[in-house]
Automatic annotation (TrEMBL):
The lineage of its organism: Bacteria, Pseudomonadati, Pseudomonadota, Alphaproteobacteria, Hyphomicrobiales. Transmembrane segments: none annotated. GO terms for biological process: protein catabolic process; proteolysis. It comes from Pelagibacterium lacus. The gene is clpS. This is ATP-dependent Clp protease adapter protein ClpS. Binds to the N-terminal domain of the chaperone ClpA.
Length: 111
């Protein structure tokens, strides 16, 4: 065997030939969850709009549209998120409603 930078690699002597490959585990997309507001007869519409703007980053126009949908249909979707994000948003809504003494309910369901 020769030493030095110009040494040729001899696969036959090392006993190892072939191409090294790495197997990558297949990653699947995280499950998504719908975050829903439920209508009640006591929470002020303006509070619902405020929640939609602050927690879900909706424009005033979109927040108003969603609020009317919740009011008229009994339930409305605020957004679709990975589990941890959806869970955080539900908690934020419920905490804000409780702090302001409103019975507003927010839930999440797997899409």
């Amino acid at each position: 065997m020769r030493a030095g930078p110009d040494r040729e690699h001899d696969d036959d002597r090392s006993g190892q030939t072939g191409v090294a490959t790495k197997t990558r585990p297949k990653t699947k997309k995280p499950s998504l969850y719908r975050v829903l507001l439920l209508n009640d007869d006591y929470t002020p519409m303006e509070f619902v709009i405020l929640i939609l703007e602050q927690v879900f980053n909706k424009s005033r126009e979109d927040a108003t549209r969603i609020m009317w949908h919740v009011h008229n249909q009994g339930v409305g979707e605020c957004g679709v998120y990975p589990y941890e994000v959806a869970e955080t948003k539900v908690t934020q809504v419920m905490d804000a409603a409780r702090r302001n003494s409103h019975p507003l309910q927010c839930v999440m369901e797997k899409q």
